[in-house]
Design brief:
This protein is an alpha/beta fold. The strands form three sheets. The protein has a seven-stranded parallel sheet, with helices on both faces. Strand 4, helix 3 and strand 5 form a beta-alpha-beta unit.
C-alpha cells in the first residue's frame, strides 16, 4: 500500500496485519431508549465498521474496546446489543465477551484465529477507566497491564473520545506500536486542513448541554484570538444569561444547580466581562407552556423551562453566520427532538449550510439533526463534537498526541 509520509502518526497503511492481534478502540456509544433499552441509532457503529472490516479482511485478530455512556446514566449498559448490530453490519460474527480483562477475556483473545473479531465488555464498567490521569499513569492500569501482552498493535479509531485521557485511549501506546484507524485518520486530515486555512471572520456556535466542553473551547478560542464571535445557544446560553445578570427564573437556575454547573456561571461572568463584543447571548427565548412553544424577551421570562432560542435571536445569529468565512458549531440550540422546539437548531443549521464560508459541525445531536435535514452545504460533519471543537480551538487531544509519540518511538516502515 502507498504510505502517506506527510502525516506525523501512523495509520493502517503502515501495518502488516496477517495473523497479528490488534486492540482497536472505537467509539460506538449510541443513543438508547430509556424504556426498552433498544439502541435507537447505529450511525457510530456503521462508521467504525470500515476499520473493523479492513482489519479482519487483512487477516488481523481484531479485539474491540468500546464504551457505552457512563456510570449513573440510564443508558449505561452492556455492549451485547452493539455486538449483534456490528455483526450484521460487517457481515460476519462479532463475538461479544462479557468481560474486559479477566480470564474469560484473555482466554478468548488467545484462542482467536486470523480474521476473527471479538467485542469486549463496556470499558467503563471498570472504575479506573473514568479517572482523569496523565497517559503514563493510565499505562499502569490493570486494563493495560493485562491486555497489552496479548496484542501486537493498538489501533485508535475513537476520534469522538480523543479529548479524554483514559486507559483504553492512551494507555496502550506505551507498550506497542499505535496507529490511527480510518475514522480517526479521516477526521484529523479534515480538521487539520481547516485549522491551517482559517479565514476571518471566524464564528463559533456553541450549544447543547455539555457545558464543560463548550466553555473550555470558548476560553481557548477567545484568549488565543481565534474567535471573532461566539454565539451561545442551549444550556450554554442559559448559563451565560445568568452570568450576565439576566433573571432566567428559578426553574432554569435549579436545572443548572442540579447539574453542579454553578462554577460555569462564574466563568461565564468573567468571560463576558473580558470579551463583551465577541460573546453573543440570546435576546429572546422559547419556553414550554403546556407542551407548546411560547416566546419571550429574556427580561420577561416566566418561571418555565427554556427549550429553544427565540426568533429575534435566530435572525441575529443567522446574519452573523452568513457573513462568516469559517464556522465551527457544536450542540443543538434547544430541545430539538420536541415538536415546536426544533426551530432554533434547524434555522442555525440552514444558515450554516447557506453560508459561503468553510463550516465544521461537531458530532452528536447537532450532526444527527444536520444529517436528518439532508443539508449539502456543510463542509465537514464530524463524528465527535467535543473532540473536533476542542481541536479547532487549539487544544491538544491526548489520544492524538500519544499517536505522535508512538510514531517517534516505533519505526514501522
Amino acid at each position: 500500500m502507498m504510505v502517506d509520509h506527510s502525516l506525523d502518526f501512523y495509520t493502517l497503511d503502515d501495518l502488516e496485519l496477517e495473523g497479528k492481534t490488534a486492540l482497536v478502540r472505537v467509539d460506538i456509544n449510541s443513543p438508547v431508549d430509556p424504556n426498552t433499552g433498544i439502541i435507537l441509532d447505529d450511525t457510530r457503529i456503521r462508521l467504525h465498521a470500515e476499520t473493523i472490516i479492513e482489519l479482519s479482511s487483512r487477516g488481523a485478530k481484531t479485539v474491540i474496546l468500546a464504551h457505552q455512556s457512563r456510570p449513573g446514566k440510564n443508558d449505561f449498559t452492556t455492549l451485547s446489543q452493539h455486538g449483534e448490530i456490528l455483526s450484521a453490519i460487517v457481515g460476519k460474527k462479532v463475538r461479544y465477551v462479557d468481560d474486559i480483562f479477566g480470564s474469560n477475556a484473555r482466554q478468548s483473545i488467545s484462542r482467536m484465529k486470523a480474521g476473527d473479531i471479538i467485542l469486549l465488555e463496556n470499558v467503563r464498567f471498570y472504575s479506573e477507566e473514568v479517572l482523569k490521569r496523565d497517559p503514563p499513569q493510565q499505562a499502569e492500569t490493570h486494563l493495560v497491564r493485562k491486555l497489552a501482552p496479548l496484542a501486537d498493535f493498538f489501533v485508535n479509531d475513537a476520534f469522538a473520545a480523543a479529548h479524554r485521557s483514559q486507559p483504553s485511549l492512551v494507555g496502550f501506546s506505551f507498550d506497542m506500536p499505535s496507529v490511527a484507524g480510518r475514522v480517526m485518520e479521516r477526521e484529523l486530515r479534515a480538521l487539520y486542513s481547516a485549522i491551517k486555512s482559517v479565514q476571518r471572520p471566524c464564528v463559533f456556535v456553541l450549544g447543547g448541554v455539555k457545558v464543560d466542553d463548550s466553555i473550555m473551547v470558548m476560553e481557548n478560542a477567545l484568549e488565543a484570538g481565534n474567535a471573532d464571535y461566539v454565539l451561545t445557544t442551549g444550556l450554554v446560553a442559559n448559563i451565560f444569561l445568568w452570568g450576565s445578570g439576566v433573571n432566567i427564573k428559578k426553574y432554569n437556575r435549579d436545572f443548572i444547580k442540579d447539574r453542579d454547573y454553578c462554577d460555569y456561571v462564574r466563568k461565564a461572568k468573567k468571560l463576558i466581562k473580558n470579551f463583551p463584543d465577541q460573546i453573543k447571548i440570546p435576546v429572546d427565548l422559547a419556553v414550554c407552556v403546556e407542551d407548546k412553544r411560547e416566546e419571550y424577551l429574556v427580561k420577561k421570562l416566566p418561571n418555565l423551562p427554556i427549550f429553544d432560542i427565540g426568533t429575534e435571536t435566530i435572525t441575529e445569529y443567522a446574519q452573523i453566520i452568513r457573513q462568516a468565512r469559517t464556522i465551527f458549531a457544536n450542540g443543538p440550540a434547544g430541545v430539538f427532538e420536541k415538536e415546536g422546539f426544533n426551530i432554533g437548531t434547524e434555522d442555525v443549521l440552514n444558515a450554516i449550510s447557506s453560508s459561503t464560508g468553510f463550516s465544521i459541525i461537531g458530532g452528536g445531536h447537532l450532526a444527527a439533526a444536520a444529517n436528518r435535514m439532508g443539508l449539502k452545504g456543510i463542509s465537514h460533519i464530524s463524528s465527535g463534537g467535543g473532540a473536533s471543537i476542542s481541536l479547532v480551538a487549539g487544544e491538544k487531544l491526548p489520544a492524538v498526541e500519544i499517536l505522535r509519540e508512538s510514531a517517534l518511538k516505533y519505526r514501522l516502515n
